[in-house]
Each structure stands twice: as C-alpha cells, then as structure tokens.
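Before our next group meeting I need something from you. Please put the record directly below this note.
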Amino acid sequence: EKCENGFEIILDRTVFFPEGGGQPSDIGKISSVNVLKTYYKNEEIVHLCNAALKVGSEVDETVDAEHRFDNIQQHTGEHMLSYAFWHLFGAVNVGFHMNSEVATIDLDRQVTHEQVIKAEQFANRQIYENLPIKVYYTTLSQLKNKKVRKISDKGGEIPRVVEIEGGDICTCCGTHANFTGTVGIIKIIKSEKMRSGTRLEFLCGTRALKYFERQTETAHAVVEELSTDFGNAPDRIKEFKSRISDLNVNLKRKTEILSEYRAKEILNSAENGFAL
C-alpha cells in the first residue's frame, strides 16, 4: 500500500527485525526494492520500501549485514554494560536508546566516575572471555529460578530470553551476538546526571574503533602544533592558556591607557565645544 514516505509491504514471513526495545530496525532489500525501515503496525511487521511489489509474488529478502552487525554490537554491549552496573552497584537500567551515532543507557541512580570506570572494565573483561550467549523462550515461572536482571511486561507468559553465560539474563526482542567477543570493545564516552539518575553514552565495536581513530588523529595534530609529545600535551596547553590570559590582561591595560590618551587628544583639539 502506498503511504506518505513510500510503500508499506507485508510478507507472509520475514527475516527483517522491526524496530523495538530501543533498537533501530533492519534495512536492506526485498528483491529489487529498498527496505528503508521495518516496524510493527496493527500487529503486522511492515517493510517501508521505496517502490511497490506485485501482490502475491514470491520475493527474496536481503538484510543489510553491516547495519545488522552494528546493531548487534551495540545491543549486546548494552546488555553487558547494564549488567555490570546492576551486578556491581545495584543500579538499574530504566531506559535504552540507539541511533546511527551513539547508544544511551539511563540508570535509576547517580553513579560516580570511579564506578563508571569499574563497570566499563568489568564489561570489557567479559568480552575478553568470549562468553557464549543463548537466546531461548521459556515460561515466567521457570525464569523465577534464575537471577534475572530484567523481565519486560511485553514478553507475555512465554518471553524471549537472552542469557550470557555467567553474566546477564533478561527478556529482550532484539538481535544479539552468539559470543561476547563479537562486541569487540565497550567504551563509555559520556556520563551525566539526569534528575535522580545517570545517563551514559557509549560505543561498541566498530563505532568505538572509529571514535578512537578520530581521537588519535586529533591528538597527533595537537602535539604536532605544540611541538611536544602526548605526555606533555596537557601541560603545554595549560601553559598556552596561561600566556593568553596574561596577554589579555596586558592588552586590556594598554587599551585603557590608549583610550585615556585618545580622550585627552580629542578634548584638546575641540573648538567651540565640538571635536572631530
């Protein structure tokens, strides 16, 4: 069916993940048309496409593998990071969101800088251990026998569970890795207070690598301009800031002297009460 942004297409079954649980949808192709977005509508999985397909035809589906892999790394990393804060400090994840640039977690309490570092280290250790990750369906009564971090109300009586061996167990609808090593690395890039809690911005896997690449390029450019090395760069920057501050004070003082001199000069040149 034609819609405002393209064509909505429904298939009898699909491999495309519809957006949900804080995770963006899959994109890709259905035969010759592009899938721009996938979402639930009236309890059906709808594929938003750039062109129409013949009703009743048989089609091939191709998920954008790079986009899916990025979602897998971010979402699996979110489980591991949320578990670290819950396991170490009793902080509960009350919100999760991913976009094309960054992922965020909202915790129900404020955490210190030291706790952020410890949680990040804990999560990355689980990456190094390359722990198996299982995805399965079970009943709510059976889940009560496990140390579950979170049970979603949307999972029903037989929820889908994502379980990291020796780590996080929670109900979730998203796409995840088979092993923790797939996440590559987890890096928290920002932590800020939000009402009575904390919002964390983080990057996983390829996103984190690209972030470090940009930082490295910037750092190389800075040390080259300062004619120093990485270790001395902070001190050199402080030195330059101090010198600039001193120059500004000196400039202000000389500007005041010059203004006084110019005012006297104008006053002395006045004729009949007027000066040019």
